[in-house]
């Protein structure tokens, strides 16, 4: 387990501010295996908090299309299920994985459920929120399917709202490829 996952909330905040890229983080994948995000060094990343029972859930289809279209150019979508918004991701990881594969053919990496806000927020999301603030400078993730675009150097480039269709991000992604 990496250091950022073992600290108190205040220590986490200080540690997050000292980190320079997303490559300093790791997270368990949907099957529970710890994955260092440094595995995605030199990739353009789209990091998304997801939910299976949300009005935006059909975005999985467009996320998969983006992934398939650009994966050969070192583009990766990383899905992080979250149950903090309207209890829209109540299932266990195996259920989430099965749902995503059967209903949307998701083949991009999915991770274990995380909190994206609050004291138990995964440090990765604290870092993303600090480096790509939302509307009017807010840090909190407002809902499921908030998307963070990260360049090949691990810098957070932009945050997209839940309502932003993944297909509308093509130009932003292509600029980084």
In short:
With about 180 residues, the protein is α+β, with helices and mostly antiparallel strands. It has helices spanning about 10-20, 60-70, 95-105, 125-130, 170-175; strands at about 25-30, 35, 45-50, 75-80, 145-150, 155-160.
Question: What do you see in this structure?
Answer:
By secondary structure, the protein is α+β, with helices and mostly antiparallel strands. The chain has one domain (3-176): Glutaredoxin (3-Layer(aba) Sandwich), CATH 3.40.30.10. The protein has 5 helices and 6 strands. It has helices at 9-18, 59-70, 93-104, 123-131, 170-176, and strands spanning 26-28, 34-36, 44-50, 75-81, 147-150, 156-160. A 4-stranded mixed beta sheet has the order 4-3-5-6, with helices on both faces. The chain has a two-stranded antiparallel sheet with strand order 1-2. Strand 1 (26-28) and strand 2 form a beta hairpin. Helix 1 (9-18) packs across helix 4 (123-131). The longest helix has 12 residues, at 59-70. It is globular, with a radius of gyration of 15 Å. The chain starts with 8 loop residues before the first helix and ends with a helix.
Residues in helices, as a percent range: 25-40%
How many runs of DSSP E, i.e. beta strands? 6
Largest sheet: 4 strands, mixed
Average pLDDT score: 90
Give the low-pLDDT segments. none
- Do you know the CATH topology? Glutaredoxin
State the secondary-structure class: alpha+beta
CATH class: Alpha Beta
What fraction of residues sit in β-strands? 15-25%
Order of helices and strands: HEEEHEHHEEH
Q: What strand line-up does the widest sheet have?
A: 4-3-5-6
Radius of gyration: 15 Å
User: What is the CATH architecture descriptor?
Assistant: 3-Layer(aba) Sandwich
């Amino acid at each position: 387990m990496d250091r950022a996952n073992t600290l108190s909330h205040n220590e986490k905040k200080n540690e997050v501010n000292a980190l320079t890229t997303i490559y300093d983080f790791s997270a368990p994948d949907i099957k529970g295996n710890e994955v260092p995000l440094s595995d995605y060094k030199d990739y353009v990343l789209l990091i998304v908090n997801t939910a299976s029972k949300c009005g935006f859930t059909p975005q999985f289809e467009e996320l998969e299309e983006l992934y398939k279209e650009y994966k050969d150019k070192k583009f990766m979508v990383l899905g992080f299920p979250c149950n903090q918004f309207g209890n829209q991701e109540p299932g266990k990881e195996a259920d989430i994985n099965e749902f995503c594969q059967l209903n949307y053919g998701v083949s991009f990496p999915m991770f274990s459920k995380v909190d994206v806000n609050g004291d138990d927020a995964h440090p990765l999301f604290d870092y993303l929120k600090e480096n790509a603030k939302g509307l009017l400078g807010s840090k909190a993730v407002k809902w499921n399917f908030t998307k963070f675009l990260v360049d090949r150097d691990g810098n957070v480039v932009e945050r997209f709202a839940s309502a932003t269709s993944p297909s509308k991000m093509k130009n932003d992604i292509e600029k980084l490829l």
